[in-house]
Specification:
single chain; five-stranded mixed beta sheet; seven-stranded mixed beta sheet; disordered N terminus; Chemotaxis signal transduction protein; alpha+beta; OB fold (Dihydrolipoamide Acetyltransferase, E2P); CheW-lke_dom; 2 helices; CheW-like_dom_sf; 12 strands
Length: 171
């Protein structure tokens, strides 16, 4: 059954990007900003799921690997890669992706519901189709499970404690 995307109560726009030979998208309401591929710090004990830490205006943002989160084969990211800085319940988190195609009007697509429990780690919300172009619409709140969120929070707390040591240097 096809329906107009706007009729489903989704936002008005979708940020589309490429990863592993697929086109994906998130509702623009979840994306705080798009950052070109940048140098990422790789501190000790960095989890394999994390690509590194991004210094975004003095704030350390943990950048996760989109390929691994979606169960895709490990990708090699080049200069055309991007980091989506995503809005979360407990702050911002980065997502390393391939090239960002842009922001598209959601009403230009036909919305095709899918069984989200059996594809892309259960994160697929729908397929959006426009003139043969298919975008896999992902559900950002479902990208990380409860245990993954707890581990990410623990890692970010350790990182914040390390950064605080720089501020507490004796004068």
């Amino acid at each position: 059954m096809m329906m107009d995307a706007a009729a489903k109560g989704d936002g008005l726009a979708v940020v589309t990007f490429r990863l592993g030979g697929h086109s994906f998208g998130f509702g623009a309401e979840w994306v705080a900003e798009v950052v070109p591929n940048a140098w990422l710090a790789r501190p000790p004990a960095l989890p394999a799921m994390a690509a590194g830490l991004l210094d975004l205006g003095g704030t350390a943002i943990t950048v996760l690997r989109g390929d691994l989160l979606l169960g895709l084969p490990e990708q090699s990211f080049g200069l055309d890669a991007s980091i989506l800085v995503m809005k979360g319940q407990k702050g911002r988190v980065g997502l390393l992706t391939g090239r960002v195609d842009g922001v598209r009007d959601l009403q230009a697509f036909t919305y095709q519901p899918v069984d989200g429990d059996h594809n892309f780690q259960g994160c697929l919300r729908a397929q959006l189709v426009s003139d043969g172009f298919v975008v896999h619409l992902l559900d950002w709140p479902r990208m990380l499970g409860a245990e993954e969120q707890a581990r990410l929070a623990e890692f970010e707390d350790r990182t914040a404690q390390r950064l605080a040591l720089w501020d507490d240097a004796p004068s």
